[in-house]
RNA sequence: GCCGGAGUGGCGGAAUGGCAGACGCGCCGGACUCAAAAUCCGGUAGGGGCAACUCUGUGUGGGUUCAACUCCCACCUCCGGCACCA
């Protein structure tokens, strides 16, 4: 009795079989085997899986299943990054309380994940918005505080005067509030909490060299993000004043060319230094600078504006005095917020000097040329020979030794107390304060007598009695929450109402998975020790910097606290490419749906539509494909197979409905083949068997290699398609062809697990395929009697010959003589690679 | 501007020094059908030739090698990241 391929039916049956047998939970807790921790970046529970998720989790699930079949104790968890703005926005729009909203979305997501057949151990599940989870964020925060790794300082925020609220960057559109399009966002300074990531900058950058299992591009992005630069701190005394201005420079070799000095507009010394008569002008200048958005301010193409403070400083190297400016091109949050300006050797200083009529003094010249200020059109930033630089004249400014002017000048500064060598990082401390409700409350109390006091009782629970309709941080509207007693002196005090950045949640969730139900500690160190580090982490490259740096930072801090053994959380990282589809764009109606385009014209306005720009799937570009629809039409196995087949995992994937059909056809052919095998009688062995047996074992070898070495599921699937073709060409129901089918199913199990499991059952196999062993190839079956090898003459193909793989050069030459038309009896040179190729030079 | 990655049939892609285009999609032809869909079989880089065959071809130009998609040098284009970081 053979049946049709009905994926919907098969998949639900098999999913029930897996869940009833608890096969994945079992695999996840079997301590007798060597562990393999397969981790995927957990999602924000938006309610619907999108194709990006489906690709991410399909790759991960295939890896997890592959490793399980290799006898590993696979830890494969899933959870939800469930704090964040969308839930709060839903609440502001009056839809539902964030808690209710979030848990409803989580349930929808879990349903879809189960429908995809992902083999998670749901016992390890977690949601970061539960007190059971976030209390440990608070616990870590207090530990960080104890060690001076959490501190408070002023920092600018986006402020909407109409909402009376701080806005997240994503709530600011073109410098205006997302809800008040006519209201410009203001910059305001608030006291906020920071984590001291800069304390780990050196280790974060150094350890990258050890991460051999990480893609080079991600490591490079992190190196740049951390931005280590070697230079020096130089101090300049202000004329007729006791103040000293500290600057950071990577070019101490240019100090003799300083012609002015610039402070960032926010620099705390500005107000102290400004000349009384220039105060009003300064305020006006600052107002103008602050009115710009940060994008405008950091636009390199804008002319560099500045304002003289009417005061001078002394360059201790020359004893000369020069003016002090404030300018918008100097940033307060890099280095010391002040720079020594050398227009002759720095392009930005050069532009500023030309614009403001400041002198330019070259002190480094090319070997064969003396620079002239009058003819310079850009700064000279190359290396050369020092001039007008006191005792450093005629030295090379920089070379590979420590005897160059660069080092000599810093040494001189050091001896005189003017400065020292210094390494500066671009990485900044991590601002974790968010003026939001739906996040982890920062567990501190402000007391009039004791100051900042850590909360004693954890968790500090996020209250439910908050108002979303009054503006401001909803958390501040809960009287019960805000008003408390000081844990230290017992007098009335106020709670912190800021909550934590959700990147805190995702910085250690992979450790919580190891012991997700622990109510006495974030985790049992022993449990983390046996599972961490993560063997394979899979996710989007968009998290290359922030998330992956924060998670590495947390892991290092926890390591230093003695809580965990490993210093790096993720041994191997795979960043999957984007899922893309062509877009339809109308000149009037912007992005339109494919259905809104007919005959190349927009159905709304009749304009000619531009079709075909391939873009990342996104709602705004109207080029999404809903995974749910694909499952309904073809089943989860087809979606999985297509995703893995269409492109190698780290490359972008171009969605194609027609190619999806192709994957469906392949699976149906496998299904039909199995049905055919079980309904026909077994025949005796025959002469075709040998080739099929070899093909079977070649396939096992290739699939194993492709998946284990490079996650090349695309070529592994191609090999399985070839095997299927070979079995059908063989056409007989012999022991060998039945074995070939069985091997095909085993290899298909990580890719299309429902169909493979179903067919396994139909073949009458005992036990679950999900727990079966991965096949091993038989080297004997790979042996061949003859091989076809190409015969080349002068590198050009002139024929092929069939020889024994062990044939000698003489044998091959005589066979070749018959196969080609040319006379090859007197070759100049013979290159014979046994069993591979023969090339003759004549 | 700087850093990283990629350029191969009509399309997704394969081959990491050894027969370029595996596998799939699409397309063309055939079988089945009253017909269509589905399915099955065959063909499918381009040029020339009735044909055996032959020439050209992996972004462009050069080089190394018996042999280059693959290695080296220069350039072009596209994608991603960073971007006044002193």
Strand order of the largest sheet: 2-1-24-25
Rg from Cα = 34 Å
- Give me the number of helical elements: 26
CATH topology of the largest domain: Isoleucyl-tRNA Synthetase, domain 2
Count of distinct strands: 35
The helical percent reads 25-40%
Oligomeric state of shown chains: single chain
Output the structural class: alpha+beta
Q: What characteristic shape results from the CA principal axes? A: globular
Task: Please identify which CATH superfamily of the largest domain we are dealing with.
Answer: Valyl/Leucyl/Isoleucyl-tRNA synthetase, editing domain
Percent of residues in beta strands? 15-25%
Could you please describe the fold and organization of this structure?
The protein is 35% helix and 20% strand. The chain starts with 6 loop residues before the first helix and ends with a strand. The longest helix is centred in the C-terminal third of the chain and has 23 residues, at 657-679. A four-stranded parallel beta sheet has the order 2-1-24-25. A four-stranded antiparallel beta sheet has the order 4-3-7-17. The protein has a four-stranded mixed beta sheet with strand order 11-12-10-13. It has 26 helices and 35 strands. It is α+β, with helices and mostly antiparallel strands and 842 residues long. Helix 23 (713-730) runs antiparallel to helix 24 (735-748). The mean pLDDT is 91. The chain has six domains: 32-128 and 506-576, HUPs (Rossmann fold), CATH 3.40.50; 140-196 and 430-502, no CATH class; 228-425, Alpha-Beta Complex (Isoleucyl-tRNA Synthetase, domain 2); 579-654, Rubrerythrin, domain 2 (Single Sheet); 657-782, Isoleucyl-tRNA Synthetase, Domain 1 (Orthogonal Bundle); 787-841, Ubiquitin-like (UB roll) (Roll), CATH 3.10.20.590. The protein binds one RNA strand of 86 nucleotides through helix 8, strand 9, strand 13, helix 12 and strand 31.
